[in-house]
Design brief:
Structural class of chain A: alpha/beta
Order of helices and strands of chain A: EHEEHEEHEHHHHEHEHEEHHHEE
CATH architecture of the largest domain in chain A: 3-Layer(aba) Sandwich
Number of domains of chain A: 2
Largest sheet of chain A: 8 strands, mixed
Helix content of chain A: 25-40%
Radius of gyration of chain A: 21 Å
Distance between the termini of chain A: 25 Å
Number of strands of chain B: 12
Oligomer: heterodimer
Shape of chain B: globular
Number of helices of chain B: 12
Radius of gyration of chain B: 21 Å
Strand order of the largest sheet of chain A: 6-7-8-3-9-10-12-11
Structural class of chain B: alpha/beta
Chain lengths: ~325, ~325
């Protein structure tokens, strides 16, 4: 249904330079952390893609680069045919209209001195949308985030609203410009379960009605599957698995994705208490293990995993995985 | 019974009047069991559990009730006796591990301080005990020399569990211990609790807003809403047959990994009521799709199973409510504000 590619990410990497200790200076070391290394994927118009992984795996850094909020160290991002790195001022302003960020913590994302009304109108002012369109666009977006019955809140200040209401305002602010693309960075992790469902439903609705392309960042696969058709698993800055969400959850290929699926608790007493199929903690990012970065926690690791890094390869139609232990493409049966 | 809370009331004095943050709650914590307290933010969970340690902000005060710990009423103890109880018998694990640990001290030294100052340990023995504690929560012993900022979020949370357990308390009170953690670390921390319960007979009061966490580690669950307990009982009974509309709502709002992906989630619209002037009758009434005329009257606790209680006028119709509540349309448009 949506075939046109909106976002084309090629070999994207980001390294952060760390401050050098005296020892580093003496030994001529330049410590750095590869937050994101060599990520490539494409996002079609209207497609939603989930990015899952533990804290510190580079999900947020990736999301910020896609919105040109941090510059990549290397690699390229192509948005609707234009290279993000070489936008001039006018096209950058246009890009800011077309791509938006939904923040994780609604309690921090809004200016406490602004009324809700001002916060929602602000993007329209900042991107110089003609003033006579403002009211209509705001009215439209309030319906979309299901706030049209809460108009009296517009003249309140953020501290007077509940978490769920605030997150709707944050969504409204991101959607008011009718963007083609949004990055939602853990949009519900700060909210109570009872109001989470409302926000997830809004996200699903705008996905279906606005034809919005979205990158949904979360550590919880149970949330991702409600909104995303496709899911990417990240581990220490790299993509380890990529495929249709349903397949990734029902039949994960990479051992790390398997552990992520297993770790999601369910509201049922009869759940498995099997120990997680993964050991230890996330390794020090300054000093990643050689070979496959997951090798020191992986239950399946063999010698080859500790020697060289597995490439991200096509394991099945529409599915990519970076693991030596996953057999070469097998013909689908049934 | 290790801990038994009876009709506990706590109020806050504010400029606008008195807020009944905890309004007559009763629950028990048996020896060696994990009891979960669930509910939305602002329903009094944190106030309730902090009061068990008599750690409360100055504007808060006890307005009635008893807290019996191991036979004695905590509210009647002198501050000195109470202080003896803290750490040694009842330990507290706060929500944000960053607040539990002092950023300018090595983690190991903080544990040793508790052991020597509070537990009367000699320095050398305290060091051994600190190593033992780190092992217990699954941290490497060499990390005792690190500062809190050198730890990841999950490690910090486990370090603060080690700190709380330093003097082998009989009861640990954990306030949202896994809320800020990602799923893998959450699982590891919850497994740590289960193991400590199994191996050392630790009793735990665990506050969370996530019913899946309750399902994973708890033996009993207490559901709080607007300062009251609306349902309580053994976890398997409460989750398999929730008998209060609020509990049913929480269950339906939960995104489940194994459920049908086209299933629409049903949020509970609106938010908890103001506790300054709580509404008469059932406090969940204006968000409840099953509210009737009778709900304007104060509900009384009814027993719906062995050890299983509900504070709902329609608890006897719970099976029917559960069936109807599956349809998301039932939850839509209940709140008209």
């Amino acid at each position: 249904m949506h075939e046109e590619i909106l976002l084309d990410v090629k070999n994207l990497s980001k390294s952060f330079i760390l401050s050098r200790s005296v020892g580093d200076v003496i030994h001529g070391r330049h410590p750095q952390v590869d937050a994101v290394s060599d990520i490539s994927f494409t996002l079609k118009r209207g497609e939603t893609i989930g990015v899952v992984g533990e804290s510190g795996c580079g999900k947020t850094t990736l999301g910020r680069m896609l919105l040109k909020l941090i510059e990549p160290t290397s690699g390229s991002i192509d948005f609707g045919g234009e290279d993000l790195a070489s936008l001039d001022r006018d096209s950058e302003l246009a890009f800011r209209r077309r791509a938006q960020l939904v923040f994780q913590n609604p309690f921090d994302a809004l200016n406490p001195h602004f009324t809700i009304r001002r916060s929602i109108y602000e993007p329209l002012v900042n991107t110089r949308v003609p003033e006579n369109q403002h009211d209509q666009m705001v009215a439209d977006v309030l319906i979309r985030v299901q706030m049209d019955r809460m108009l009296h809140l517009l003249d309140s200040y953020p501290h007077q609203l509940s978490g769920g209401q605030l997150q709707r305002v944050v969504l409204a602010r991101a959607l008011v410009l009718n963007p083609e693309f949004i990055v939602a960075d853990e949009p519900v992790s700060m909210l109570d379960v009872s109001v989470r469902a409302g926000i997830l439903n809004v996200l699903r609705e705008v996905r279906d009605t606005m034809g919005l392309a979205a990158v949904f960042i979360s550590h919880d696969l149970a949330l991702v599957r409600y909104v995303c058709e496709r899911t990417i698993t990240m581990y220490m800055g790299s993509v380890v698995e990529d495929g249709p969400t349903r397949d990734v959850i029902n039949r994960p290929l990479h051992p790390y994705t398997r552990a992520l699926v297993q770790a999601v608790p369910v509201p049922n007493v009869a759940q498995s208490h099997e120990p997680l199929a993964l050991t230890g903690n996330l390794p020090d990012a300054r000093n990643p293990p050689p070979g496959c970065r997951f090798s020191d926690r992986c239950p399946l690791a063999e010698d080859i995993c500790r020697q060289s890094r597995p490439p991200l390869r096509t394991a099945e139609p529409n599915r990519r995985v970076a693991c030596f232990m996953v057999p070469e493409m097998v013909a689908e049966t049934g | 019974m290790l801990l038994s809370v009876k009709d506990l009331k706590i109020q806050y004095k504010t400029r606008k009047g008195i807020v009944h943050a905890v309004d007559g709650i009763s629950f028990d914590v048996p020896e060696g069991k994990v009891v979960g307290i669930v509910g939305e933010s602002g329903c009094g969970k944190t106030t309730a559990v902090r009061s068990l340690l008599r750690v409360m902000p100055p504007v808060a005060s006890y307005a009635g009730g008893e807290i019996n710990f191991d036979g004695s009423d905590i509210l009647k103890l002198s501050e000195r006796e109470m202080n003896k109880l803290r750490w040694r018998d009842i330990a507290y694990i706060p929500q944000s591990a960053m607040n539990a640990l002092d950023p300018v001290w090595r983690v190991g030294d903080q544990i040793i301080e508790v052991l020597t100052k509070r537990g009367g340990f000699k320095k050398a023995k305290a060091k051994l005990r600190a190593e033992e504690l780190f092992e217990m929560v699954g941290l490497e012993q060499k990390r005792l020399r690190d500062y809190p900022h050198q730890f990841s979020g999950g490690m910090r949370q486990r370090a603060s569990i080690a700190l709380a357990l330093a003097l082998s308390p009989r009861l640990a009170i954990a306030d949202e211990p896994v809320t800020a953690l990602d799923v893998i670390i959450q699982r590891q921390v919850l497994d740590t609790f289960s193991r400590l319960q199994r191996e050392f007979g630790l009793s735990v009061v665990l506050v969370t807003h996530d019913i899946s966490v309750v399902a994973y580690v708890c033996d009993y669950v207490v559901v709080m809403y607007a300062g009251k307990i609306v349902e309580k009982g053994p976890v398997k009974d409460v989750l398999s047959s929730p008998s209060h509309a609020y509990t049913i709502g929480l269950y339906n709002a939960f995104p489940e990994l194994s459920a049908d992906e086209e299933r629409e989630l049903s949020p509970i619209e609106g938010g908890p009521p103001q506790l300054l002037n709580p509404p008469e009758g059932c406090r969940f009434r204006d968000r409840c799709p099953f509210a009737q005329e009778i709900c304007k009257q104060e509900p009384v606790e009814v027993q719906v199973g062995p050890e299983h209680f509900s504070l709902c006028h329609r608890a006897h119709e719970a099976a029917e409510m559960r069936e109807k509540a599956r349809d998301p349309a039932v939850w839509r448009g209940v709140v008209t504000a």
